[in-house]
Amino acid sequence: MTQPIAQALSARLRDMILAGEFQAGQHLREVQLAQLFGASRTPVRLALAANEKDGLLEYSPNRGYVVRPFAGEDIAAAFEMRAQIEGLAARKAAERGLSPEAARRIAETIDTDARVLSGDAPLDDGAREAWRANNAVFHKTIIEAADNRFIGPALQTVQRIPGVYPPVLASYDPVLLRKYNGHHRRIGECILARQGTRAEFLMREHVFEAGEDILTSLHPAHGPAQDLAGAAE
Amino acid sequence: MTQPIAQALSARLRDMILAGEFQAGQHLREVQLAQLFGASRTPVRLALAANEKDGLLEYSPNRGYVVRPFAGEDIAAAFEMRAQIEGLAARKAAERGLSPEAARRIAETIDTDARVLSGDAPLDDGAREAWRANNAVFHKTIIEAADNRFIGPALQTVQRIPGVYPPVLASYDPVLLRKYNGHHRRIGECILARQGTRAEFLMREHVFEAGEDILTSLHPAHGPAQDLAGAAE
DNA sequence: ATCGGTCAGGTTGTATGCAATCTCATTATC
DNA sequence: GATAATGAGATTGCATACAACCTGACCGAT
Q1: Is there a single domain that holds both residue B17 and residue B48?
Q2: Cβ of residue B215 near strand D, that is under 7 Å?
Q3: I need a surface site. Which of A13, A86, B41, B195 has the fewest CB within 10 A?
Q4: CB contact under 8 A, B233 and A2
Q5: Residues of A in contact with B54 (CB under 8 A)
Q6: Could you write out the DSSP letters of every residue in B134-193?
């Protein structure tokens, strides 16, 4: 990453941006951030550059950094990329095969989620956190099994989008989560059966649907059709 | 990007790394680079951080930056990602449709390439440069037509790989280029016909084959099979 | 002889000063 | 009255000084 203090500042700044603590287009001044963080301009400058590279800020020479705006189409575009890249990960994981340990971890997340979601009551905080953690492990295990150095970083830049930040979002609808649990189960089965093509497209559709659901929850008025779906083929 | 001088240094450093002017694993010292570039440590530090973000350097706190090694599997992994992402671009371009201007540009690159490659003689420098430029326009036009903010940057990080740098490579084999020209023609036809699925997979295969050809030219001994193809499905 | 400690040199990390550039309000000109 | 020029304040860009840390050699103890 970057340097000790600069590294921490970069992460703090990133989280602030993702949490929506700045307005889109806002000019982030170095001295202002330095005072806020209790540091000098040097590490702040590095943190700004790092977040610009991550696509969260825009830079103009001699003018500094402004917060990059994210519209609905940008969120849809990010999920399109996620679907495509995680589809690759699922296919490669199926082609290469899972280690016994990876297979065990994936099965465990699926079974645990099914158990957590078995009741009809809305999820309490513990259940939500359990689901969030299991979801992360499921996707992370497949990405690691794909064994492609470029997948992880590419996914990070497309997952860290203001407005889709898990702490902000938190639309833990049990109906949706049960649907996702079913997706996970089928994807896991395909990977174990070494069916790469099915795994790829089920994963693609899984991520795409999750994106649709999030866009729907963000714009309750109109459905996700005009945001995510392009022209018909 | 970054600051005036730092921006230039970042590009110079990147080109030096891509051109293979440093050994893999080499420790890049700030003062040394500063003297080489005739600047102070401040912009050099920004250039190092930028190239680390681009995946060309590795950073350890209080130890600085070392040149990241790239093995054959890394090149194969990069082409896998390129194939997947450019496949998305081709599909989206087909779904959204091309502007008349974009359609014209694509047709022109295909026809010009076909003319340049019509002879049997090996290509001279002008022909090579023409093909390189046309190839860039073809891919760039499709990527722009896909209209997804995340595609361009993701492709850059996966295209800028030491050892696959065009000036270094320069394996302009007319037989291969004619094959690629045929790929381009079919991909262009699919996009114009709004056949997104065919466009996606033809593009994926096009990039994949190009990767195979490059790996073959890099390791003439063994074929690309063990590098690019994973386990059978 | 081997292992651990200590210190000097070198490298990175941060702070700060100065120069260059931009912003924007005020003024001058048409 | 509208537009262009000007200048002060603010902000970024770069250089450099100092502090923190790491590396490796030397030395002493076991």
Answers
A1: yes
A2: no
A3: B41
A4: no
A5: 53
A6: HHHHHHHHHHHHHT-TTHHHHHHHHH--TT--HHHH----HHHHHHHHHHHHHHHHHHHT
DSSP secondary structure code for residue A162 in this structure: T
User: How far does the CA of residue B119 sit from the closest CA of chain A (Å)?
Assistant: 38
B4 touches strand D (CB under 7 A): yes
A47 & A99 share domain: no
CA distance B161 to A173: 43
pLDDT more than 70, % of chain B = 90
> Measured between CB atoms, does B46 come within 8 Å of chain A?
yes
The per-residue pLDDT for B233 is: 39
Query: How does pLDDT run across B42-80, given as a tens digit for each residue?
Result: 999 999 999 999 999 999 999 999 999 999 899 999 999
Residue B233 is assigned to a structural domain of this protein? no
Chain B CB contacts of A86 below 8 Å: none
Tokens of B111: 């026809």
Decide if B131 contacts B174 (C-beta within 8 A): no
Mean residue pLDDT of chain A comes to 89
Do residues B144 and B176 both lie within one domain? Answer: yes
Do A61 and A77 reside in the same domain of the chain? no
CB atoms A196 and B233 under 8 Å: yes
Is the Cβ of B63 closer than 8 Å to some Cβ of chain A? no
Which of the listed residues A16, A37, A67 is the one where a domain comes to its end?
A67
Give yes or no for residue A170 having a pLDDT over 70: no
Give me the CA B104–C1' C29 separation in Å, rounded. 51
Question: Tell me: the pLDDT tens digits for B173-199?
Answer: 888 899 999 999 999 999 999 999 999
* Contact predicate B216/B224, CB 8 Å: yes
CB-based contact B148 A49, cutoff 8 Å: no
Give the whole-angstrom CA distance, residue B139 versus residue B101. 15
Phi, psi for residue A8 in degrees, rounded to 5 = -65, -40
- Domain end, chosen from A36, A51, A67, is at A67
- Whether pLDDT at A2 is above 80: no
Q: Considering its fold, how many domains does chain A have in total?
A: 2
Q: Are residues B84 and B45 in the same domain?
A: no
**What pLDDT was estimated at residue A112?**
93
